[in-house]
Amino acid sequence: MTAAGISQRTILITAVIILSFAALAGGAYYFLAAGAPPGTGGPGTTPVTPVTLSPDEQRWIAQHPVVVVCPDPNYPPFEFYDQTGNYSGISADYLHLLAQKTGLNITDTRQDNWSVCVSMIQANQSDLLGAVYTSDLRTGYLNYTLPLYQPPLVIITTRNVTGMLSLDDFKGMTVAAVNGYTSYDLLKEKYPGIEVRTEPDIRTGLLDVSLGRTDAYLGDLPTASWYIEQGGLSNLRVAGEYVPPDPTQFQLAIGVRANEPELRDILNKAILAITPEERTQIANRWIPQEFQTSPFDTRIIWAIISGVVLLFVIIGIIILWNNTLRHAVAQKTRELSEELSERRRTQELLRESERTYRSILEDIQDVFYRTDPDGNLVMLSPSGIKLFGYTSADEILGKNIRDTLYADPGERESVLAAIRKNGSVQDYDIMAKRKDGSVIAVSTTSHTYPAPDGTLAGIEGIIRDISQRKGFEQELVRKNEELSGAREQLLSAQAELKENFNRLKKNQAALDLARKKLNFFNTITFQNIQNAIFTLSGYLELEKESTDAEKILEYHEKQHRVIQTILRILRFADNYKNLGLTPPRWQDVNQSFLFAVSHLDIKRISCVSEVRGLEVFADPLLEEVFVTLEENVIQHAKEATEIHLSCRVVPDGLVLIFSDNGPGVPGDLKEKIFEKGYAEYHDMGLFFTREILSITGITIHETGEYGKGARFEILIPKDGYRFTGTGGQ
């Protein structure tokens, strides 16, 4: 077949297809921005009236044949991409209407998320942002048109959070916002006490609140409601609203690149010219689906059916007309097309791979390097040239990495040994050398790479600057050491305070008890002296009235005994006048025992102590306790030759044993000797001995076997004794 034959056949088929689709569409052509037919402001039928532009504005439009808008792909109902990939939404309809009123050619560029759109307009790669909140937080790179609408900016929480809240109520909590949104910038700059969770889109932010991963979400009400309904997030509610101090802020408008004020003025002129009917048409386009009429026209359906039938008839005629020629042309065309497509695909892949590779090398923050088998640098990313202090690649390429970049060349051998053993190294820390000789800490992840023939081509990998991290780690170690030291000091001070408090508490309790006992002792001492004087007065009166010499002598003896009793009471009062005046303290038992011995004339008695190093917490009159016990031996065990002091630990504390080898105490007197009534007519020493010891919870009992000597067991509570380093059990 000739080229002319192919051309005629192609023209024929093309004409048929064009006619068929013209019938299918009914002559209507839909635009990208809003799906509106030409000459309308949306899905309605109201003609669009162009605005009058100045010569300068017309000139600007002529010089800018294409105006690029970067929409938020996930911001319904304001702007989004529908299922067919078309730019849709309220802002899309407005932009289409503004384009018709001004003659601007507005086209969209689809990006993954809003953050990319913000970056593009900052880099002068786009002209417009389709829907953006007016705010002073974006000064420097963005201007705003007149506002188109003002949706509320609300706080979304779960339903278990009650009451109406403001952003101030979330101090110390986590609030989610989409990266690049005005709500995100507002939280970052105006509410430093709130931890901001960066979200890629609205759906993810609301889902994080619903699942409890964050405390709240900040965004506009329409889009939040859209996603809550679409996602079935029934556990969310509006918990509050952010009302800007300036009512002109936080209104949705079109964002215009800051260096294009003419474009903003053109759009503002068109916005002022929008009629209420045009605004109503755009609003009606986005009401709920159930309130709209069916989008299908039966006439269009019949036109489609007719066109399809006509198309199949024509195709059948063509097939019958020259079946052989069709097969030959189709086969050859298919082969040529496949070959051409494959070549184009391969070339495009190569170009894309080259662009990607070059982009990665130029933009990578870490350092990429490659060496030949001898260790000579054959490739180094721009970040590596900067990190190691060089001005160009020519200064370092071709040099050996061991001598050029390693502060310790021996570390290079260690890296090579690890690669030979494991095939690669991962995050291997080394010290690197810069051009000026300074040393920095880096880590490398490296491996071998093959040549096309499969042989070893060299080593390549990534080098990362970790000097800042190392500094942080060292600072962290230092801070931890300081914190540990402070903690030890705090624990020590706490223990000391606790010990002092416990000691003070025990002292206070003991003093209170001692003072009560002292008051009691004073009372009974006064009463005893008063009773004795009364008795003495009685005997004196009897003596005056008596003339019997024997009676008078008897009265003298009784008066003498009363006087002895008074002297004994006064002596006791003198001994115990200091009871309770000073707090209890730790006292050396062995020392108190020996001091008591030194006050008495007991040379005939051997005194043995086996309590060296033992201290007890007792009243300062502890020494008087031993004096009383030793006097008791002298007075009541005249044949005793030995006093023995020992101790033993028991479950309830410690027992201090004071014993002698005298006759002992009869069984019926073992408790009476400590009683007040018995002591008044004998010796009050043992009574007050028990009272002195009881001040700090110490008890005393006589447990000896009569005929084998006296044995006083003194039980000291667990917290009332201790052994020092000079002796003990």
From TrEMBL:
Residues 469-507 form a coiled coil. Its EC number is 2.7.13.3. Keywords: Coiled coil, Kinase, Membrane, Phosphoprotein, Transferase, Transmembrane, Transmembrane helix. Residues 426-478 form the PAC domain. Residues 353-394 form the PAS domain. The chain crosses the membrane at residues 12-32, 300-321. This is histidine kinase. InterPro entries: HATPase_C_sf, HATPase_dom, His_kinase_dom, PAS, PAS-assoc_C, PAS-like_dom_sf, Sensor_kinase/Photoreceptor, Solute-binding_3/MltF_N.
